[in-house]
From TrEMBL:
Domain of life: Bacteria
Compartments where located: Cell membrane
Topological type in the membrane: Multi-pass membrane protein
Name of this chain's protein: Multidrug export protein MepA
InterPro entries recorded: MATE_fam, MATE_MepA-like, MATE_MepA_subfamily, MdtK-like
Lineage, broadest ranks: Bacteria, Bacillati, Bacillota, Erysipelotrichia, Erysipelotrichales
Pfam families referenced in this protein's UniProt entry, alphabetically: MatE (PF01554)
Length: 443
């Protein structure tokens, strides 16, 4: 990479990453669309209750994958190709280990987890039916989500996007066949998701195999303790970025059950689908620019890192405003799309409108956190990621719901994002002051 081709490199990495992350979010949305229309409100609530378990698998995979990808790019920036190859082997071994052990452990304690998440009655039966299939095939989503960042940081951005696209197309076709035509309900939706993730895993592994992995010595696949610690230290933030929406779902589901019962959970399931798509698209900007940031961090080009941040910042804000405007304009069609019953239709539309206010602030937080972990500032990144579910969001939910009941629950998330984005800008401000004259136009 050279400075004179930076502009081309920026868009080469960021646009495919945004698209790939958006496709990743569509997996659960597609299940929700088909199940909501074919089975009904209870099934929609069941997927929403079980979704956090699925997210833990995805978060672990993404944490390891991005941790390995950042480390790989950092070594490449320092022209240390041997350690770069060792990082790929170590990351692959960690992903396989996690893909076997985590689903096995979760499968053994699924009933307890579902009760803890608030499932009961028909919702519990549906949630168990869905998540059991996901866990049985749990290795596939771990490999699919974890190998994709490695492929992207290897310079194969288009290939990484094609892998995600093939999985999404497979998921749509199988959902239609299994849920609508064969009437397999939640079992069919979960099966479609697992097979689609298998397509992503196999295609991504194939590209990596022919690009790099087949040439690696076997010893590179025996994890190095130093590399494991480095990968996990970096990966803890992207792990949290993926997991936090799951914690948000758990906390909000509890409050919804308290103030509105299963109907409120169904409303939030629609909101969470739309919110997840926006979060992933905006996260795609940070994930996309991350290989460049890691490379130039290794090369000690701090002024270029700062310029990349500014360019990404304005792109993130612009995309967030477009997303918010889209929800405001199409809130009614979005609500109808999920097939919710008329009794909760208006509440669902209002909840979507309120949640859309949070998008610009999500963009700021996600990007700033990604910049921190890509440039070795893991403590700042982890603070941004974990302070939200541990302190800020619970406080907002408790205070606002006690005053405004169900409406307060919908307002809590935007309020938490405003506070969090303010903290992000405060943490980033020393770097902004340190490089005040870097022109944005150089990119």
């Amino acid at each position: 990479m050279r400075k004179e081709i930076m502009k081309k490199q920026f868009w080469k990495y960021v646009l495919p990453s945004m698209f790939a992350m958006l496709l990743s979010g569509f997996y659960s949305i597609i299940d929700g669309l088909f199940v909501g229309n074919a089975v009904g409100n209870t099934a929609l609530a069941a997927i929403n209750i079980a979704y956090p378990i699925q997210v833990v698998l995805n978060a672990t995979a993404i944490g390891i994958g991005i941790g390995g990808a950042v480390t790989m790019s950092w070594f490449r920036g320092k022209n240390q190709e041997k350690y770069c190859d060792q990082t790929i082997g170590t990351s692959f071994s960690l992903l396989v280990s996690a893909g076997i052990l985590l689903p096995l452990v979760f499968y053994m304690i699924t009933p307890q987890l579902l009760h803890l998440l608030g499932a009961s009655g028909e919702v519990y039966i549906g949630a168990y039916e869905y998540i059991a299939v996901i866990l049985i095939g749990g290795l596939l989503p771990v490999l699919g989500n974890g190998l994709n960042p490695l492929l992207r940081n290897h310079g194969k951005t288009i290939h990484a996007t094609l892998c995600m696209s093939s999985g999404l197309i497979t998921n749509i076709v199988l959902d239609y066949v299994l849920v609508f035509k064969m009437q397999m309900g939640l079992h069919g939706a979960a099966l479609a998701t697992i097979i689609a993730q298998g397509v992503v895993a196999c295609s991504t592994l194939s590209f990596l195999w022919y690009s790099n992995i087949r040439h690696l010595p076997i010893r590179y696949f025996f994890p190095s303790k130093k590399l494991i610690l480095r990968i996990l230290r970096i990966g803890i933030s992207p792990f949290g970025q993926t997991l936090v929406p799951c914690i948000v779902i758990i906390l909000t589901n509890w409050m919804c059950l308290k103030y509105g019962g299963n109907d409120a959970v169904t409303v939030f399931s629609v909101v969470s689908y739309v919110l997840a798509s926006a979060q992933l698209l905006l996260q795609g900007i940070g994930d996309g620019v991350q290989p460049l940031l890691s490379f130039y961090h290794g090369a000690k080009e701090e002024h270029i890192i700062h310029a990349l941040y500014k360019k990404s910042f304005f792109l993130s804000i612009g995309c967030a405003i477009l997303l918010s405007s889209g929800v405001f304009l199409f809130a009614t069609p979005l609500t109808a799309l999920f097939g919710v019953s008329t009794s909760i239709y208006e509440e669902c539309r209002i909840a979507l409108l309120i949640t859309a206010l949070s998008f610009p602030f999500i963009g700021i937080t996600r990007l700033t956190s990604a910049v921190f972990y890509a440039t070795g500032k893991s403590k700042n990144s982890s603070l941004l990621v974990y302070i939200e579910p541990c302190i800020i969001l619970p406080a907002c939910l408790i205070i606002l719901s006690s005053t405004f009941a169900l409406t307060g629950i919908w307002v809590a998330y935007p309020a938490a994002q405003i506070i969090l984005s303010s903290i992000a800008l405060i943490l980033k401000s020393p770097a902004l002051v340190a490089h005040p004259i870097t022109p944005i136009t150089q990119l």
